[in-house]
Specification:
The structure is a homodimer. By secondary structure, chain A is α/β, with parallel strands linked by helices. Helices cover 54% and strands 13% of the residues of chain A. The first copy, chain A, has 14 helices and 9 strands. The N and C termini of chain A lie far apart (77 Å). The relative contact order of chain A is 0.09.
């Protein structure tokens, strides 16, 4: 018996990384994106292009969602459920970063969809290199059945709980990640403003108790003021607002995150929204008034 | 020719760690503290007790200062300079965390004192284990002459610049360290408030791109609400104010550090000043209003 192809809805930066890793691991990939150029790109890297979600629902198992936001995840899941033949069931692996409460509701909505959250801690580049850390939430049996596919895209992963919990874990991890990035920016500006050499300071800081992984990932670029986007400031602001919404829902103040959101808003106002999120260092630099 | 003993002024937690490491490396230690109990303690761990700073000035080389603050460093250095015989010169290694500008001025004050800044990134416990990272600033020739002593107390160290620059480096490193600590606190509270298991979340966060060394040092204690002091909140607030003073002097705003200082102030108001600085997580927990 031939294995069905792995379905892929959404072929942006992350979807492409998934497709490349699946093809490299000898999985057939049947994908779709609303943009023709992205469909052509999938074909070029060795995937098959579906006519639409109906074909993916009928032929693929499991089906990975790598679309933009919660709305698109809901639309795609509803469309897949509606397109399935009677008595057919499919595993849907949702890699998009979403509102956790809406994902928990969506996971319970369709009897013919076994829904597993699969967001990642890491960039599409890290996923491509096999260094993305998969956060798995929801139906553990479905996740086990999809293990070969998950092995291909996330060699390291953690099952963190029910549907919604992977998104919650991702939001809390990204809260810390973003704050470590901004703390590094503030420390670098402080060091430079006191007259220290930034590169020498960063070297010492990386050897000290203040070490954070973001120093390796963003430190040199911040000093060189190289903001070629790996993750855009505008997107990071959107995520920060998602975190603040969640926090408001549970009645929790997050004072550092509020500062981070305000700094990102200032960057967007300055026209830096499309630049890398490490551009927050420029807003810290602007908060200087010479005597 | 017999080597002169290493001088040690101040036998608190850090001074004791220095004394233990020096004795273990077969250096004779001649030390003094204004508190008789600390002098007795030095004797118990294998050091010699001096009658006062005059004896240390006359007999010891180099002389390590491990006193509380800038005022005490200035007083001790002036006293040592005044007590030296004509034509004698001494190397003074200053391990206290101080105001960098006043240290730069002090280093130039006395013709018979060769002043080297030697603050550490790390706790007295880390120094004791040989894991303190020494930050060296000032007279490079004097630092080279004192290399055997520095080897004993700081196996890893960096010469970061002129006198004052080691203190500046320490302040900027500790700014990042303190903010990483508070970011971790905020992330843990956010995760718990959304219903995640704190220990499982911390485990995933440590494997993620959000990793910081403070997760290893303080994560478990924050979750267990164990605030036995390694570094006290009151002292960390004092250091944060020193950073804010420096920043004001160079006209730089530091928005995250301002939040950190306010959180530490709230902890001190709540009677938590003598607890470990990771108690900031309790203030974040208090910023919760149930719906």
């Amino acid at each position: 018996m031939q294995h069905p192809p792995v379905g892929l809805v959404g072929i942006g930066l992350m979807g492409e990384a998934f497709a490349r890793r699946l093809v490299a691991a000898d999985h057939a990939v049947l994908g779709y994106d609303v943009e023709p150029a992205k469909r052509a790109h999938l074909h070029a890297i060795g995937g098959q292009v579906a006519e639409g979600l109906t074909e993916i629902a009928r032929r693929a198992q499991p089906i990975i969602l790598a679309v933009f936001d919660t709305e698109q995840v809901e639309e795609a899941t509803d469309a897949l459920a509606a397109a399935l033949p009677p008595d057919a069931r499919r595993i849907v692996l949702c890699a998009s970063t979403c509102d956790p409460d809406r994902i928990a509701a969506l996971a319970a909505r369709h009897g013919n969809i076994r829904f597993v959250e699969t967001p990642v801690s890491g960039t599409s580049q890290q996923v491509l290199l096999g260094n993305g850390v998969g956060l798995i939430g929801g139906d553990a049996h479905a996740a086990a059945e999809a293990a070969l596919v998950l092995d291909a895209i996330y060699p390291t992963r953690f099952h963190v709980g029910a549907a919604g919990d992977a998104g919650r874990t991702k939001l809390a991890i990204n809260l810390i990640l973003g704050l470590n990035r901004l703390a590094l920016a503030e420390g670098l500006v402080f060091a430079e403003r006191m007259g220290l050499d930034g590169a020498a300071f960063l070297d010492v800081a990386r050897r000290s108790a203040a070490y954070s992984q973001i120093m390796d990932v963003k430190g040199d670029a911040m000093l060189a003021r190289d903001f070629a986007p790996k993750g855009r400031a505008r997107q990071t602001l959107k995520d920060a607002r998602l975190m603040l919404d969640q926090a408001a829902r549970v009645g929790q103040q997050l004072p550092l995150l509020e500062v981070h959101a305000a700094i990102l808003e200032a960057c967007v106002r300055e026209g830096e929204g499309e630049l890398d999120n490490s551009v927050v260092i420029e807003e810290i630099r602007r908060r200087h008034r010479r005597a």
